[in-house]
């Protein structure tokens, strides 16, 4: 066995295991359920698609089934009435915003919709923060204080916003806040 196989085979084994873990039938069922809550999906409001997602978040399935039927009718009627000032929702966020007006009538569906909107974002931000910490907290910077580490992690995670900051404005704000420090001009 060559050196390449000693590295390649365990790497491929790890990748296959991660893909199997992340995309098992339960996870895929939850993703299909989220997709079925989107009005532009061909499976919009399909209870069989949403069932695994609803079970994962302990929804009352009987209530949900009735709410889905009524919500589909509501969206259809919104599309039929062209004189109405309410636009027909075409996205998941638009659908949940529409349900917010009737949150007592669509309790389970509204709750699952809010979870569906927040779920992908919360997962991505956790992954980003662990990735950023891996780059920041190295053996060289092992003695970094928790406050400094948290501040560096925030700057790394929110990189897009950090790049928009003006260095001059940051220096001016620091100088204004710490008036007892003198900035030497070279």
Describe this entry's structure for a reader.
The protein is mainly α. Helices cover about 70% and strands about 0% of the residues. The chain folds into two domains: about 5-120, no CATH class; about 135-175, no CATH class. Helix 3 (about 45-55) packs across helix 4.
Domains counted in the coordinates: how many?
2
Structural class from helices and strands? mainly alpha
**Uncertain residue ranges:** none
Strand content: under 5%
Q: What is the makeup of the main sheet?
A: none
C-alpha Rg (nearest Å): 25 Å
What is the terminal separation in angstroms? 62 Å
Q: Number of helix segments?
A: 9
Number of DSSP E strands: 0
**How does the overall form come out from the CA principal axes?**
flat
N-to-C order of helices and strands:
HHHHHHHHH
- Average pLDDT rating: 81
Fraction in helix:
55-70%
Keywords summarizing the entry:
flat; mainly alpha
Task: Describe the structure concisely.
The chain is built from nine helices and no strands. With 186 residues, it is mainly alpha-helical.
Question: How would the blueprint of this fold be written?
Answer:
Elements: H1 3-22, H2 25-36, H3 47-56, H4 61-80, H5 92-100, H6 107-136, H7 146-157, H8 159-163, H9 167-177
């Amino acid at each position: 066995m060559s050196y390449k196989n000693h590295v390649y085979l365990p790497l491929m084994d790890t990748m296959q295991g991660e893909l199997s873990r992340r995309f098992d039938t339960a996870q895929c069922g939850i993703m299909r359920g989220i997709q079925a809550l989107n009005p532009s999906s061909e499976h919009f409001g399909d209870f069989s698609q949403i069932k695994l997602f609803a079970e994962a978040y302990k929804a009352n399935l009987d209530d949900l089934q009735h709410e889905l039927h009524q919500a589909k009718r509501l969206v259809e009627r919104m599309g039929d009435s062209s004189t109405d000032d309410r636009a027909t929702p075409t996205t998941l966020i638009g659908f949940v915003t529409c349900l917010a007006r009737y949150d007592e009538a669509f309790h389970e569906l509204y709750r699952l919709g809010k979870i569906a909107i927040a779920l992908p974002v919360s997962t991505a931000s956790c992954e980003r923060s662990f990735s950023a910490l891996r780059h920041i907290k190295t053996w060289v910077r092992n003695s970094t204080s928790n406050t400094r580490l948290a501040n560096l992690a925030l700057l790394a995670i929110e990189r897009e916003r950090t790049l928009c900051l003006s260095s001059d404005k940051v220096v001016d704000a620091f100088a204004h806040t710490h008036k007892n420090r003198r900035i030497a001009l070279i």
